[in-house]
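Internal ticket #5521
Category: modeling
Description: The requester needs a full-assembly model to guide mutagenesis choices. All entity lines are attached below as received. Residue total reported by intake: 592.
Assigned to: D.W.
Attached entities:
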Amino acid sequence: MAKVKRGKVVRYNKWGYIFLIPFVAVYVLFQLIPLFRTFYYSFFENYRSGLTQIGPNFIGFGNYAKMLSNPDLWMYTKNTLIMWVLGFVPQIIISLLLGAWFSDPSLRLKGQRFFKTVIYLPNLIMASAFAMLFFTLFSDGGPINEMLMQIGVLKEPYQFLTNVWSTRGLVALMNFLMWFGNTTILLMAGMMGIDTSLFEAAEVDGATSTQVFFKITLPLLKPILIYVMITSLIGGLQMFDVPQILTNGKGDPMRSSMTLIMYLNNHLYSKNYGMSGALSVMLFIITGILSLIVFKFSNGKQDK
Amino acid sequence: MLSVETNETKKGLGIHARRALAYIVLVIMSFLCLFWFYILFVNATRSKGELTQGFTLLPSTHLIQNWKGVMAGTLPVVRGMINSLIVATCSAVLCTYFSTMTAYAIHVYDFKLKKFMFTFILAIMTIPTQVTALGFIQLVADMKLEDNFIPLIIPAIAAPATFFYMKQYMESALPLSLVEAARIDGSGEFRTFNSIVLPLMKPAIAVQAIFTFVANWNNYFTPALVLHDDKMKTLPILIAQLRSADFLKFDMGQVYVTIAFSIFPVIIVYLFLSKYIVQGVAMGSVKG
């Protein structure tokens, strides 16, 4: 068929390029050039000290050396990872459970539409408004403290936002609530894709539902689980809105909930461009490596 | 079916126990998802005085009064809503239209750089916007586009994730024979795209338009770097401003109303469209 229409096809195919123009033009202008500029800036000493502008002077990898030798970077990396893990572990457990239940035809759960709608809802909420809401709800004189005192759990208000682990816990709770519905739907779609004859065979052999879950569902779900975990980690490294608003950009108490992107944001606001550049490049490289892993796994999935 | 169930009751947890457990966990999770927004709703209807009198589950009658208080206050909430609406709507329209066009280019035509472009777009999909932020704000400053919506709207044209979704959808919904038929009828390529392909892509466009709208409505990082003038600020920036203000000066009822007006419009729209959204998430994931 292609042979017959060769001439025509070639004539039409220039439209492939024409239709790509808007995407490419906008991408180059607003993403690619800024990306290169960010790389470029990372090699210059360029910041403000009080009112005087230092630089820009070329210093090679000076910014990187300075950044990596600063304990702040490691502290914020640790904070980001801790809050990600605290949110991700319950998220994956609950999502696996709900996904298994939703996709199990023998359970015949009623109201699935309703439950799916509800658990996905927090994903669409404005993260900054959600964090602001949690800030007011969990403030010292806020409704949660009042409620806990009224029902007699607490005698005096618990200061959620002045304790390290309760602050991190709140950030993790918000991330958990915002993302477990999404993960449930992803995992459920994966579970629906498993060949039902495997489950039937297991039932004939007398396997319990727990055995089926651990021996059949989980191993077959491994590629999707890895995909979910790494995309969640990429998202976790970008954690910003929730801790930024909850702690008013300070990462209090004692910067224990300051994330990497909050650090970047602070550099950008104080016009510390050299450091922002180095930090951006580092995040770019880490995300790039993680994406490569995802890419490999999802390609393997398609080959199957 | 029956024999299977009795078989299961003998070994491990019985089906009834499992079903009960599933419902309990689902109810708890649903409660955890809705509880905060219910308190938000209740507190938005209570007056400043009532809010100091402890926690309650019953709404009061001061919603309108609180709203009027917000309107009279210093925070330009209405202006912020209009700004957010402009940015989110324009982004959603441009993003879906041009992502469909990009997907169409890759799906229908055969050209030398096709494979390269497809791989390239997939590769850039996971680059976080934050890592280009430094270069981006420099560019915006150079183009004198600070306090302007253009740098927030135009970049939506190049959206790799939306492109990918559209491409997946086209594979199942757009037969190439249809495009051929249009050509035989003498339709130009651009017209074919606008009058035949776009209507066919409506379900996918609707889903992605919602996602893009919500993502832009909620976006805080980039707008906060670009918009500094009070008249141009979007809602998330105002929320951040509310957080950094001296709290004691604020009427808490008004604070709750402001948060409610950032959150509830999205919830209401979602409740009407949830079927398509949840399906859309599942669909995007299968091949993702």
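Resolution: model delivered.
Comment from assignee: The radius of gyration of chain A is 25 Å.
Ticket closed.
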